Amino acid sequence: MVALDIKDMEIVYRHPDSLVDISTHYCPGCTHGIAHRLVAEVIDEMGLAKRTIGVASVGCSAFSYNYFDFDFVQSPHGRAPAMATGVKRSRPDRIVFTYQGDGDMISIGAGEIIAAAGRGENITVIFLNNANYGMTGGQMAPTTLPGMKTTSSPNGRDVEQTGYPILASELLATQQGASYIARRSLHDPKNIRMAKKAIRLAFETQVRGLGFSMVELLSTCPTNWHMTPANATKWLEEKMLPYYPIGDYKVHPELSELKV
Amino acid sequence: MQNETLIAGFGGQGVLFTGKIMAHAAMAENLQVTWFPSYGPEMRGGTANCTVVISDEEIGSPQVRQPHAVIAMNLPSLDKYENQVAPGGYLVINTSMVNRKAKRSDIHVLEVPGTELAEELGDKRLANSILLGALLAEAKFLKVGSVEKALEESLHGNKKTMVEINKKAMQKGADYIKGK
Amino acid sequence: MAKELWKGNEAFAEAAIRAGLQAYFGYPITPQTEALEYMSARMPELGRVFLQAESELGAINMVYGAAATGVRTMTSTSSPGTSLMMEGLSYIAATELPMVLVDVVRGGPGLGTISPSQGDYNQMVHGGGHGDYYPIVMAPAGVQETVDMVYGMFDIAEKYRSIGVVMLDGSIGQMIEPAEMPPMLEVRKDIPEWAVRGGAGKDKRILTSINLDPAEMEKMNLRLLKRWKEVEKNEVRFAEYYMDDAKIAIIGNGTAGRIALSAVRTARAAGIPVGLLRPISLRPFPVQAVQEVAAQLDNILVVEMNAGMMLEDILKIVQGKTSVEFYGRIGGVMPYPEEILAEIQRIAANPAPIKGHPRDLWMERIEPVINQ
């Protein structure tokens, strides 16, 4: 056997500088960890860590500030876009992003997100859609699929009573102030790579001062979906993707020429 | 020494402006002053009023139940405020817009055809200054010079041309009441 | 600087700007809107931040974000808007960030009226949202006092890393009085040590209000309370009028206090020995001043533009040592001096201690007045 000199090897995979080297509180199989990593990698690659301020929200990601290794504030439920606005307007040369779940962003915070997009607020929103309220134990969210069982829709979401899922990317893409709106999924490596590119483009939008950017990331919640991580991934692909098509919903012309 | 004037009329008759001119003049005389408007639902009916309290000590209430003087620019204002004038006080009536006499006999009633006199000066919007001129000629709680200074300092830009004509209107009101 | 005529709402906006305000966020609501409009012209002119938010929820959370970066920031609103801001205020208090709120109070409950009221006393003085904390609350009685108070409130808020509230009623917001503006301060260039700025690794700062460990949260609460004791020690303010030889004391704050002053003067002219204690800081409350009044005087008349919110605080302080009566107007009605004068005359004629709760007795007296 020949001893390999590790110094001569190319590093193809490493811990991002912008992630703290600790275990997270997220459940096994949850895709929050992947989303965190993608954001951290993009911040590292763009060299933004020393001028980024994150805005955590309320939900499973309330404690995301413990995992990202740069400045963070934590907002009331749904108000992250407003708080981010206050940060960005006060320090316009900093990079400001919110990290929000579906209950936070498109239920209690629907007003704030639409207003921020309408204003063309130069912030980035990372939006995790896992079709339920995770932190409080799996209640129905505005994103819960028709017929889907949750602890507050035990017989399955009845659209006659509770209406239909809100399509956040489609909705925000109608806003003139929005410059980059994309939906991606975190269910397999190919889609994860696509998600990273979208996150990169979202931050590029902000760095270029083009206005509001948002990336919706379809995510799994094995614990509250009562599935194994593998089955949850399969469920996302089979059930969520048809309802929430991945794609670019709004791309500023200046971004479409950009290669990332 | 405290003096209160309530000015009331339709929106557009310069009621709030006249109050502000009085406040400005009082400040120029180193007196304490408050200008207190009616605001809200009362304004919606097209009527406006404000109370100007002038004093040589710290002013308490900015609104008074029995003002020392009332300037009634129209009939609804006369109907509403005639009874409130403090005994011995002044009621200035714009007779151009009112079809009745005052009922009170325990106060000084100054009847001035403000709108008509203003039209003689070419602008019926000067009725407010004519009535103020009449009031100050009789009640004398502000110096004419301070009011003129207030006009000069309040009307600037494209309103500057209104300074002299307002001074004239005040004089016309004073002459009218003295000539009676 | 010479005195100029200022409308209350515009005066406090200019005073805040002169205090070095860097970021203002607000939402239109009567009777405060002139402040928002004034800021919308003046702040951009000075290269500072102005933004009309989507709601009072938005506005207070924009203030939250701005305060986290260490800039001097404020909002202004009126009662229904203040109710909406309670959530944000509680978070800001828990995150220990300084900010200034000007609440131009109107009549409630509900959408209520847009007329002057002191109905926010409980929600500010005893509240400010959920949890154990107090905002610092000051109540001016005129335009100059409002100017001075807003100008000074930023320093106070920063000293204690607390919320500073200037609570005035709609009449002060709408009235014009001469006021002298304080000098224009330079906008702060440095960033306070605790503020987020974009720092990574060992320079990382987290500003949050959540700590799921109750033991840690308990320590944090204790820290806030200990800081509050300092506020109580240093920031009590009140004004006294004709109190030296008074036998009857009126206690009223803000506009109710200044209306009472007119009544006190008239009563004095008629030989009634009455004085006025006007609390300026409502939280911390001038407890000692009220205790001294209770120990020395025969009668207290509390006057408010609500149904006796401050009255309850005074009853607790007085502890039955002297007779306390109450007079108030509610829902957006301002009392006239004559009403308070009649109360003074009634008490002077019969200073014997009352039997029953002062609010109950006032309700009996006020009902015919209201139904007139």
TrEMBL record, chain A:
<dbReference type="InterPro" id="IPR051457">
    <property type="entry name" value="2-oxoacid:Fd_oxidoreductase"/>
</dbReference>
<dbReference type="GO" id="GO:0045333">
    <property type="term" value="P:cellular respiration"/>
</dbReference>
<dbReference type="InterPro" id="IPR029061">
    <property type="entry name" value="THDP-binding"/>
</dbReference>
<keyword id="KW-0560">Oxidoreductase</keyword>
<dbReference type="GO" id="GO:0016625">
    <property type="term" value="F:oxidoreductase activity, acting on the aldehyde or oxo group of donors, iron-sulfur protein as acceptor"/>
</dbReference>
<protein>
    <submittedName>
        <fullName>2-oxoglutarate ferredoxin oxidoreductase subunit beta</fullName>
    </submittedName>
</protein>
<feature type="domain" description="Thiamine pyrophosphate enzyme TPP-binding">
    <location>
        <begin position="59"/>
        <end position="182"/>
    </location>
</feature>
<dbReference type="InterPro" id="IPR011766">
    <property type="entry name" value="TPP_enzyme_TPP-bd"/>
</dbReference>
<dbReference type="Pfam" id="PF02775">
    <property type="entry name" value="TPP_enzyme_C"/>
</dbReference>
<dbReference type="GO" id="GO:0030976">
    <property type="term" value="F:thiamine pyrophosphate binding"/>
</dbReference>
TrEMBL record, chain B:
<dbReference type="InterPro" id="IPR052554">
    <property type="entry name" value="2-oxoglutarate_synth_KorC"/>
</dbReference>
<feature type="domain" description="Pyruvate/ketoisovalerate oxidoreductase catalytic">
    <location>
        <begin position="11"/>
        <end position="174"/>
    </location>
</feature>
<protein>
    <submittedName>
        <fullName>2-oxoglutarate ferredoxin oxidoreductase gamma subunit</fullName>
    </submittedName>
</protein>
<dbReference type="GO" id="GO:0016903">
    <property type="term" value="F:oxidoreductase activity, acting on the aldehyde or oxo group of donors"/>
</dbReference>
<dbReference type="InterPro" id="IPR019752">
    <property type="entry name" value="Pyrv/ketoisovalerate_OxRed_cat"/>
</dbReference>
<dbReference type="Pfam" id="PF01558">
    <property type="entry name" value="POR"/>
</dbReference>
<keyword id="KW-0560">Oxidoreductase</keyword>
<dbReference type="InterPro" id="IPR002869">
    <property type="entry name" value="Pyrv_flavodox_OxRed_cen"/>
</dbReference>
From TrEMBL, chain C:
<dbReference type="InterPro" id="IPR002880">
    <property type="entry name" value="Pyrv_Fd/Flavodoxin_OxRdtase_N"/>
</dbReference>
<feature type="domain" description="Pyruvate flavodoxin/ferredoxin oxidoreductase pyrimidine binding">
    <location>
        <begin position="14"/>
        <end position="188"/>
    </location>
</feature>
<protein>
    <submittedName>
        <fullName>2-oxoglutarate ferredoxin oxidoreductase subunit alpha</fullName>
    </submittedName>
</protein>
<dbReference type="Pfam" id="PF01855">
    <property type="entry name" value="POR_N"/>
</dbReference>
<keyword id="KW-0560">Oxidoreductase</keyword>
<dbReference type="Pfam" id="PF17147">
    <property type="entry name" value="PFOR_II"/>
</dbReference>
<dbReference type="InterPro" id="IPR052368">
    <property type="entry name" value="2-oxoacid_oxidoreductase"/>
</dbReference>
<dbReference type="GO" id="GO:0016491">
    <property type="term" value="F:oxidoreductase activity"/>
</dbReference>
<dbReference type="InterPro" id="IPR033412">
    <property type="entry name" value="PFOR_II"/>
</dbReference>
<dbReference type="InterPro" id="IPR009014">
    <property type="entry name" value="Transketo_C/PFOR_II"/>
</dbReference>
<dbReference type="InterPro" id="IPR029061">
    <property type="entry name" value="THDP-binding"/>
</dbReference>
<feature type="domain" description="Pyruvate:ferredoxin oxidoreductase core">
    <location>
        <begin position="246"/>
        <end position="340"/>
    </location>
</feature>
